[in-house]
Predict the 3D structure of the following.
Amino acid sequence: MGNELNIKMYGMTLDCKDPYELAKFYAALLRWEISYQDEEYVCVGAPGAKQGAYPGITFQKNEDYVPPVWPEQPGAQQQMAHIDFAVSDVEQAVRYAVECGATVAGEQFSDGWTVMFDPAGHPFCLCRMAALFESADFALR
């Protein structure tokens, strides 16, 4: 039993020039807490959860970080991933994200979600997910 392999999603890491500032943005947006920080890494997670108990977002210092261009353009820095956030009201979530420091992408491709940029330029989406929110199994109700 002692040799059993355990794998658990710990978090998603975003590169940036200033991990603490970007962590403050996501902590405000999600109403989460900064659970760990040093000069190179900052982690945010759900309030009251032990670090690693619930997947969080980690921010890693990268002095050479270049924000991606979205939508994609040939020869420009491309996004490698983005985070989708389930929201109950897209318009209200967009207003709140802007108050936290996000910007709305100039181009949109759907009425079901809005593409945003965090303060470091990472794209993320605010997605209307009524079926998810209305499910009895949704953990964050």
Remarks:
- Strands lie at 11-16, 33-37, 41-45, 56-61, 83-87, 103-104, 113-117, 123-128.
